[in-house]
Amino acid sequence: MTGAQQTRRAADERLRRAVRPEKPFNWFRLVVTVAVVAGFLLATSTVDAHWGRLPEAPAQLWNILGLMIGELALADLPDALASMWESVAIAWLGTMIAAVLSFPLAFLAARNIAGPGTVVVTRQLLNIPRAIPEIIFAVALIPIFGLGPLAGTVAIGLSSTGTIGKLSAEIIEGCERGPIEAADAAGASKPQRVRWAVIPQVMPEIVAFWLYRFEINIRASAVLGVVGAGGIGTMLQQSIEFRQWGQAGMALIVVIVVTIVIDAASGAIRRRIIRGPSS
Amino acid sequence: MSSRQPGLTRPRRPRPSPFAAAGLVGLAAVTVLAGADWEYGIGFSLVEIWDGLTRANAPMRGLADIDLGTLLGSRARSGFLETLQMAVVGTVTGATAALPLALLNSRLGAPNRAGYVAVKLFNNIIRAVPDLLWALLFVAAVGVGVLPGILALFFFSLGVVTKLTSDTIDGIDHGPVEAARAGGASHPQMLRYAVLPQVLPAYTAFSMYCFELNLRASAVLGFVGAGGIGAVIDFYRGQGQWDRVWGVVAGFLVVVIIVERISALVRRRLL
């Protein structure tokens, strides 16, 4: 027997005797998996959905898509673009309202700026609009402002205030202590400290988040018209309801293209704001 | 008197970059165009907002004597149950379908360049369609009820979870990937043993986040006939019973906040 064979035999022998380490048992994963599967089965079996209609859904959707493309007419394009512009305007102005409302609230909700009592109260205040969808704000505002874009704008503004305020507060809490201490050491008052030590640090990130929220708000304002709060939603809802598939298709294409284009543009601006001019 | 030392001048303030200046001018122009009262503006006016909010109106009177007893009624209870069921079924199916799609949607997981571009385009289109619009389409396709709501949430979840997960996949540690390739793993084996274990916690967290989104979304699907608590809110709104509308909304608020707390706890444990 050569030496090489011997070594090999020994290695084989060790491999045979080797015990594979047991996989660590993860209770957490088991509990989550069981809960999800059980919840899913329970919900599927108890929900009052007409599952029998599910198999025909793909064919129907395909049929509708075919009609949308088949009946597409360029004559609908100007209308669709004008309504989509209204949706973009609603999203933009709504985001501006939210930015203005949330900016002071964000400082009151940041633990390193405001006292603990103020923080708790402000955070709860910000939680409420965060949980309520824009459409619900819109239906409540329509009796006040009448059907039209103003109700939608205010709805978007109020409901985004919660999210923007919370995120801005978190950005403010994450700012560096150094400049604050320096401002303190130079004898800055509390407002001066915020103005010169905190705002310059957090502004790029907060503005980037405003833009991000604008992207989300376009999706929201595109459907506000379903309840009559302005924008392209009205056109979508009516053309689908009256089965004018060509018009619905044009509106859908405009929504998708404009959303993707604005996402791309806004994303590029956000990256530029965060990274700065050099890179 | 002056404390300024000779020869020491204050540094000049840097001029705003052309990028920032052009951006600000552009944004101001968009704002004016969008807000002005002309053919293509929405006629934004603070006066009108103030007048509207200070004038007596039905929704606010309803808010003042909010009727929480509505929550105990059978209509509200079945609405809440339906919303939960829709959110669970929509999220679980959507998130499950999103995992393979997310692998294909990442540079690492896509088998080739063409497939990557096609999947990315598909995902961008899915994500550009808002939840309520999916519901409108499916109500037209399969009729009113819970089914179009579930289908809408399925596609909405598919878009969100795919996007978030594929972004995570693009950012993972490449060490295990190289190790798997060096060990002779096939492409699917590499995905299974080098990529999946790294992204699974984030994927689970995104799915839970998506559940919260779906819960919120399912409150509005009812406005277009896709079932859930939105149908109940729309019903009371149609009757002008704002006290009941706010009662249901308050109950919904509590449900959302509780689910958010639980989900935040689990997510913190995961990540």
TrEMBL record, chain A:
UniProt cross-references to Gene3D superfamilies, sorted A to Z: MetI-like (1.10.3720.10)
Keyword field contains Transcription: no
Domain of life, per lineage: Bacteria
Domain ABC transmembrane type-1 residue range list: 84-266
Keyword terms: Cell membrane, Membrane, Transmembrane, Transmembrane helix, Transport
Subcellular location: Cell membrane
GO molecular function: ABC-type phosphonate transporter activity
A Pfam family that the UniProt record links to this protein: BPD_transp_1
Entry annotated with the keyword Repressor: no
Membrane-crossing residue ranges in chain numbering: 27-47, 59-77, 89-110, 135-158, 216-236, 248-269
Topology class, membrane: Multi-pass membrane protein
SUPFAM superfamilies in the cross-refs: MetI-like (SSF161098)
GO CC annotations on file: plasma membrane
PROSITE patterns xref list: ABC_TM1
Main location class: membrane
Family, per entry: Belongs to the binding-protein-dependent transport system permease family.
Protein name listed in UniProt: Phosphonate ABC transporter, permease protein PhnE
Species, as recorded: Phytoactinopolyspora halotolerans
UniProtKB/TrEMBL annotation, chain B:
Keywords assigned by UniProt, alphabetized: Cell membrane, Membrane, Transmembrane, Transmembrane helix, Transport
Residue ranges constituting the ABC transmembrane type-1 domain according to the UniProt record: 80-267
GO MF entry, a single one: ABC-type phosphonate transporter activity
Keyword Cell membrane annotated: yes
CDD domains: TM_PBP2
Transmembrane recorded as keyword: yes
Coiled-coil segments: none
GO cellular component: plasma membrane
Localisation: Cell membrane
Membrane topology category: Multi-pass membrane protein
Transmembrane segments: 132-156, 213-233, 245-266
Domain of life of the native organism: Bacteria
UniProt cross-references to Pfam families, sorted A to Z: BPD_transp_1
Broad class of where this protein is predominantly found: membrane
NCBIfam families according to UniProt: PhnE
The family this protein is said to belong to: Belongs to the binding-protein-dependent transport system permease family.
PANTHER family linked to this entry: ABC TRANSPORT SYSTEM PERMEASE PROTEIN P69, PHOSPHONATES TRANSPORT SYSTEM PERMEASE PROTEIN
UniProt-recorded name of the protein: Phosphonate ABC transporter, permease protein PhnE
Species annotation: Phytoactinopolyspora halotolerans
Top-level taxonomy: Bacteria, Bacillati, Actinomycetota, Actinomycetes, Jiangellales
